[in-house]
Amino acid sequence: MDNFLDNMNGAIGAINDVIWADWVLYVVLGVGVLFTIWSGFCQFRAITHGVGVTAGRYDEKDDPGAINHFQALSAALSATVGLGNIGGVAVAIALGGPGAVFWMWVVGLAGMALKTTSVTLSMLYRDVSDPDNPKGGPMYVAQKAFASWGLAPLGTAVGVIFCITLLISAITGGNMFQAWNVGQITKMAFDVPTQAVGIVLALVVGAVIIGGIKRIGNVAGVLVPFMCILYIAAGVLVLIMNIGAIPSMFKLIITNAFNPTEAAGAFIGGTAGYAFLWGMKRALFSSEAGQGSSPIAHSAAKTKEPVREAVVAGLEPFIDTIIVCTLTALVILSTGAWDREGVGETTFAGTPSFTQGDEGWHLGSFGDPDPSDNLSTETWFVGLPSKHKVAMETTGKNWANEDTVFIVVETSKLDEKTGTKLTKISGNVEPLESGGFVAIFDSPVESETAPTFMSEDIQVYKDYPGATLTAHAFDRAIPGFGTWLVLIASWLFAISTMISWSYYGEQGMVFMLGKRSVLPYKLFYCIMIIVSTLPIIGSDKELDNLTTLGTGVMLWANIPIMLIFGGIAMKAYHDYGRRLRSGEFKPHASRSFNDMSEE
Predict the structure, then answer these.
(1) What is the CATH number of the domain that holds 309?
(2) DSSP assignment, residue 82?
């Protein structure tokens, strides 16, 4: 089983190396800049006019569609504001450093133009023949737009290709990434089996998605504002507590976006290019900019003006990336969680040694700590080579079986991505029969010569994969607070994301196989929630493999559609802007969000 999983991860990694080549990131960013200039900086109109549209100032009851602008934005945001904002940002900083945040901002701003363009096209070519279930998205754009050029078979083929990539992304990033993170954070908080978490999530998500887009819109209209306010308020509280560090954090983000980040504490260093890579990947995953997924939700909006809903869609990356992701990043950086110190002081009776095996260098044989050592009951142990040990004092939370830790060593091999010769050796915490815990380090290290420790004071770091790093950051500010906050937020964010992505995948199935495929798809979708919480995925990198695959294949399918038909979208956008400036559209009194969500 382990060999199969290793081979699968290796195969997915090889595919990701191709679809996420550096030039692909430049193309996506370039397309965002293209539509930013072509639209005359549509970001400004989204922040101004888009807010008024979302507030219902231009709504008409007889407009075609199933849900209002606020519900459509909430449904789309429920897919974007999710574990990517909590766990994805943490992954970007843990692997790419503070500079990754700057590139997340860049993608967020460019993403506003990508969203506006993609949603404009989907609204122009959507199908409203069934008023209760409008259908739209890049697959319908390809099908109808190519047909208008006399290329109907090509349009259908391109639409099917997009739907296949949509399903891959729905199952991986929209589903498995969310459930895995919730399973990890819940296990960390209460030591609840992740499989039990998966079953509960599957039941909750299944109960919502069975009701279709109207139920999803109603649930999202309540859930999204609540969870955003809760999370933002908590983040602002932590930033107020660390207000003096905020200016230096912004300086750190900007500086490290263009310069290598030196190793510090748990962070082993990273080049500017590595920061760019992780910032782009995580921002694209979090905001879905360029993927073409959120136009499916927006296509259900009630409006007779296609561009009007597109302007609302432009708000998504601003809320998701510029506000929520930045808040998470500042909490992680200002509390020092990203370059945190070791979990305790170390003591040993000699110099630890390495032995070379077929797979690389390993730490030597292990021995349990000597029971005769005068160590308090507040001390836990980490095993090093024979008769060498590390004494770690607790940091307010007892260890649990299968907790992961790591130590940092220097090898002879320079990692071009991080710009250093440092690497991590991972270990798992296991209980001792005599009481306490021991961590066994068994991961091999590739090096031409034996790895070396940075100093005799060997630091052991608790590993915080995904959302657990964000929880740790909040805990550093307010002990015990982070675990509860991120636990609650993770459940809310994950559920909201999974219900919206289920709808996206459902629409892809309808396009390819018709309505008869919906029920089997929903059952399979819920089963995969449970599968993702089984002991299959064990680290940030394995998790990134899946989400990177889903995001990447959608970009490859949707970006060409946007480039081919982008002129049509821009013509409609500028025509709407002209009529808006001429006073053709008269706003009326806005309504409360509660009134809008009840329509």
Answers:
(1) 1.20.1740
(2) S
